[in-house]
């Protein structure tokens, strides 16, 4: 009796090959040897997950220099059925490349992804003050644009190693303003059961304020502060229905199965008209949260047991 081969899991990522997103996907052990599907933009990657065309998608969500990737944050806030299942950090380096024979003095039009351009603009302004930026859909696509029919692009900002994929020459390296820049990527799948805590976890959610009033944001933040939950990210994004309405993207240390985090999320849910749970997953840096004794799981459980005994009329132990 013959058996059909096991189906390969499919992972969508911003392509083509050689992007930082692909570098992040290479860190996912369970993705090795599976079907990797390059796409043109973040929306296509997430749509693959929603429709079931892919099992998961790798997307950039935050950069240490430019902050949150707003298109990713807005997509996770508005597309139902998605859940973050892991995060990965990729150091960001850039080189300026051109077709063979082109020199830095020949460069007037530079193709670059907008985020990459922002990180390298200072160098470009000094090296080629009169240059013009032509946006590209990815860092690798910028290099591909050098060879497009009828192209006006003279040079491209691309990741190191791009010369392995295209016939280009490196005009300059180390051109990013911050040599220690890091981009945070998240692996996004469909909503499912949350895994168990590892001891070094992060919980992501999006919450709206109940009303535009003084102290509304403080009330939201106190749900975490009073339970000893540290926030690693707090960013506001406009809801879009009218002026003055915002949602908040929140990353908190800990796991939803940790008592202090669960209690904080219950408080957020009571006070916010709309809460989107984005997932609890292992931190990429594997740094465990520092927890005061008053906020550990046992203290929360002891408090609940005490309350139950009071309600049931159980006499305190001698």
From TrEMBL:
<dbReference type="GO" id="GO:0005737">
    <property type="term" value="C:cytoplasm"/>
</dbReference>
<dbReference type="Pfam" id="PF01842">
    <property type="entry name" value="ACT"/>
</dbReference>
<dbReference type="InterPro" id="IPR008242">
    <property type="entry name" value="Chor_mutase/pphenate_deHydtase"/>
</dbReference>
<dbReference type="InterPro" id="IPR045865">
    <property type="entry name" value="ACT-like_dom_sf"/>
</dbReference>
<feature type="domain" description="Prephenate dehydratase">
    <location>
        <begin position="10"/>
        <end position="190"/>
    </location>
</feature>
<dbReference type="GO" id="GO:0004664">
    <property type="term" value="F:prephenate dehydratase activity"/>
</dbReference>
<keyword id="KW-0456">Lyase</keyword>
<feature type="domain" description="ACT">
    <location>
        <begin position="205"/>
        <end position="283"/>
    </location>
</feature>
<dbReference type="GO" id="GO:0009094">
    <property type="term" value="P:L-phenylalanine biosynthetic process"/>
</dbReference>
<protein>
    <recommendedName>
        <fullName>Prephenate dehydratase</fullName>
        <ecNumber>4.2.1.51</ecNumber>
    </recommendedName>
</protein>
<dbReference type="InterPro" id="IPR002912">
    <property type="entry name" value="ACT_dom"/>
</dbReference>
<dbReference type="InterPro" id="IPR001086">
    <property type="entry name" value="Preph_deHydtase"/>
</dbReference>
<comment type="pathway">
    <text>Amino-acid biosynthesis; L-phenylalanine biosynthesis; phenylpyruvate from prephenate: step 1/1.</text>
</comment>
<dbReference type="Pfam" id="PF00800">
    <property type="entry name" value="PDT"/>
</dbReference>
<keyword id="KW-0584">Phenylalanine biosynthesis</keyword>
<keyword id="KW-0028">Amino-acid biosynthesis</keyword>
<keyword id="KW-0057">Aromatic amino acid biosynthesis</keyword>
<feature type="site" description="Essential for prephenate dehydratase activity">
    <location>
        <position position="183"/>
    </location>
</feature>
């Amino acid at each position: 009796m013959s058996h059909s081969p096991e189906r390969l899991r499919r992972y969508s990522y911003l392509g083509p090959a050689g992007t930082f997103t692909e570098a992040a996907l290479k860190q996912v052990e369970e993705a090795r040897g599976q079907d990797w599907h390059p796409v043109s933009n973040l929306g296509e990657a997430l749509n693959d997950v929603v429709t079931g065309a892919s099992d998961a998608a790798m997307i950039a969500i935050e950069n240490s220099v430019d902050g949150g990737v707003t298109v990713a944050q807005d997509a996770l806030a508005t597309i139902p059925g998605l859940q973050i299942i892991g995060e990965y950090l990729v150091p960001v380096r850039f080189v300026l490349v051109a077709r063979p024979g082109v020199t830095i003095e020949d460069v007037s039009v530079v193709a670059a992804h907008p985020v990459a351009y922002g990180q390298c603009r200072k160098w470009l302004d000094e090296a080629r003050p009169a240059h013009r930026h032509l946006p590209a859909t990815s860092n690798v696509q910028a290099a591909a644009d050098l060879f497009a029919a009828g192209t006006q692009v003279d040079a491209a900002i691309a990741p190191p190693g791009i010369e392995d994929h295209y016939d280009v020459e490196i005009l300059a390296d180390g051109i990013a303003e911050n040599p220690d820049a890091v981009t945070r990527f998240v692996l996004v799948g469909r909503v499912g059961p949350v895994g168990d805590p590892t001891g070094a976890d992060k919980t992501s959610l999006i919450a709206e304020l109940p009303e535009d009033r003084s102290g509304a944001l403080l009330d939201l933040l106190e749900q975490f502060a009073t339970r000893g939950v540290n926030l690693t990210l707090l960013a506001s994004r406009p809801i879009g229905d009218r002026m003055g309405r915002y949602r908040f993207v929140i990353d908190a240390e800990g796991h939803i199965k940790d008592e202090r985090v669960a209690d904080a999320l219950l408080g957020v849910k009571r006070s916010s008209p709309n809460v989107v749970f984005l997932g609890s997953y292992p931190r990429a840096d594997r740094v465990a949260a520092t927890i005061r004794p008053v906020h550990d799981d046992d203290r929360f459980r002891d408090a609940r047991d005490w309350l139950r005994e009071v309600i049931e009329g159980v006499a305190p132990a001698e």
